[in-house]
Structures are given as structure tokens and as C-alpha cells.
Write a structure and sequence with these properties.
Strand content: under 5%
Order of helices and strands: HHHHHHHHHHHHHH
Helix content: 55-70%
Number of domains: 2
Shape: elongated
Largest sheet: none
Number of strands: 0
Radius of gyration: 32 Å
Length: about 400
Amino acid sequence: MDAATEMVNLLLRPEYLETGTAEERAKRIGDIVTAPFGDGPAAPDTDVRAAEMVCAALWARHAAGVEQEMSKAEVSSRPETLDLTKRVVLTRWHLQLLVEELPIVNSQPLEPGDSAASKVPSDALQSGGGPAEAARLRLEGLMRRYEQNPRRVGDIWGRRKTTALGVRFARQAADGLAPGPGRGAMFKRIAIAVPLFVAVAAWLSRGAFLIAWNALVGLVLLPRLRPTARLTIGAVSFVLSVIFWLNFVRRKPPRSRKPGIAFRQWGSGLLFVGFLAAGIVGTWQHGWIVRPPDHFRAAWPWSGLSHRGGVFWPSVVVAGATILAVVCLWIWAKPWAILVGAAVAGAFMGAWDVLGAWRHSADPSSLQRTVAAFGSMWFPAIGLALAFTWAAVGGHPEDRPGPPEGSG
């Protein structure tokens, strides 16, 4: 439709008009506006026939005005002289594109691999108000059905394939901003991709992002903070999560609700509240498994199972929260990539939690003792974030088919 607009603005200029009287030129414009959309007259009781009838009524209403513009064009070369003529011709072309392309668009699946959309029958030509009015009402119904068809970004938020497309776009953007081979270019691409991937996850995966964020904040971060910082960060996270949930997770319009949508919306809300509550309130309860692991001394090698009372189960919570976060944040990836990433990240974070609780004796000298000296959970968290970004930038783990061959 944009191309049709530009063509009309380009061709319908006073200096380009053919010779002849104003009446003759207006008649040629009328022939264009009222010409059949196909090789012959359209079948009755169809959208095409309704559009042809609207075009005929449009020309009957504005024929005199177009002829007046043609007369003015003989003495004026300003483009605005043919404003009405352009609008009439453009309406005709837009209506033809509408009735020819819209049924095809409405019948297409929302995403590749989805079942085809159900075909909604067109409204029959109505008799009230005359044929032209009935045709106009029919076209309004056609456009209304298109507006009600799930085609907006908001209607496909939270879908794996949509988020995968966003990840692919973010990777291409990072490649474009930091092109070239070498480690330096790769480090730049990773630095650019980190905020882009976070934005894609928040904007497209919605409820999954909300669950992942609060699983890490509520079950991993808050229990390892001092009480003042725990309450402050927990309150800020709660407020931001509520705002995010109200504006994004529950934003889907009622017309496109499907079975299970409400369950997922409220389920994600209850989960994020539960995770934050466990991190804030549960850490004051003795024996609560979200509490940081108790410090212990033992000669290496040792087994985490031998310290299950105060070390093993808190570390299992950390590993479980990490696995859940990876699954939610990488919901767009191929299943094998999700499984491998979740297993590696969960095992790494859980093991680091156990190792950070170990107060080694003076006799062993090993890699474990060195790593245990850096007990902060920020080290594995940042390292895993960079590693996952590198995997997404350097590979193609998204679960979405690539562009067809020859499409450029």
C-alpha cells in the first residue's frame, strides 16, 4: 500500500497529464477508478464485488470535483492541484489490494509450523441503505475481522519461536555493530549482546523472564545478603516485578485469550511472590533450606552428602533455582541446548555453593582450596552469563528454522 501511495504521487502530477480537455482527462481517471479488479466483473456476493461497488459510488460522488481539478491543472503546475484526484485513485488501488490480499493473510498460521487459521466467512451483502451502503458495510466487516486477527506482537509474546526470532535479531545486531574476526571483535559482540539478550528475554518471554529473575533473586541472592540489604533489594525487586507483571504478563487483550493463558499469567505471578517470600522471610527460620550453607571444616577430599544438614540442601536449592532460571531464559533454544545449559549451570552453581562453605585446613594445597577462597556467588553467576552469551552469539541455538535458501 505504501508503494501504491508513492506511485500515485509520482504519476499524477499536472505536468504529466495527457493532452485533451478537462472532461476527457477526468473520464480517463473515472475509467481507472471504476474498472473491474479482474479480467471481468466479479461474482456477486463477494468482497471483490463489494469493493467494485464502493469504487463506483466513490467516483459518482467525486467525478465533478476531479473534473474541476483537471481544469485548474491547465493553468497551475503545483502538485496539490490534483489532491482529490490522487485520493480517489489511491483509494481504488488500496481497496483492490485489500480484498485480494487480506483473505490470504487471515488464513495464514500465526507462526511457521502452526495449524492454518480458521477461515471466517465474509458478511453477506446487506440490503438496508442501498447496494452501495451494503457494500461499504461489508468492507468494514472485512477490515474489522483483520483487526481482530492475532497479528500484533503482543499476541505472540511468550512464544518460544517469537523469542527465538528476537534472539536472532539481537545476534545480527551485535554482529553488525562489531563486525570482523578475532577475539577483540568477539568480546565486543558479547558486550553488546548482553543487554540486547536481556531486553529480548524481558520483552518477549515475559512470564518466563519474571520467574527466572525472581528465582535467582529470591532463592540465591537474598539469602546471602545482610538483613538490611535483603529487605531493601527484596522490596525493590517486588515492586519492579509487580509493575512488570501488570504491564507485560497480563497485557494480552481479552479478544485473543486462549485456554491456559490466565493460568500461566497468575501462575507466574504466584511463583515470583513465593520466591521472594522464601528469600526474605524464610532465611530467619532455622533449618529453612534456602538459608546459606553452614561453614564446615574437613580434609580434602570430602563429600557434600556428608554435610547434608547444613550444606547439601541449601546448595540443592541454588542448583534448582539456577536450572529453572536457565530453562526460562533459554526457552527459545533447541531442547538439547536447554538441557545441557541447565545441567551445566545448575551443577556449577550448586558445587560452588558447597565449595564456598568449606573452610579448608592448612595442610591441603589444591585447586579446590584456591577456588574456595573466592566464595562469592558473583563469580560463577557472571561467568555463566558471559558463557551463555558467547554460546548464543557464536552459535545458533535458537529453535527456529533459518531463512529459505536463496532468500538473501
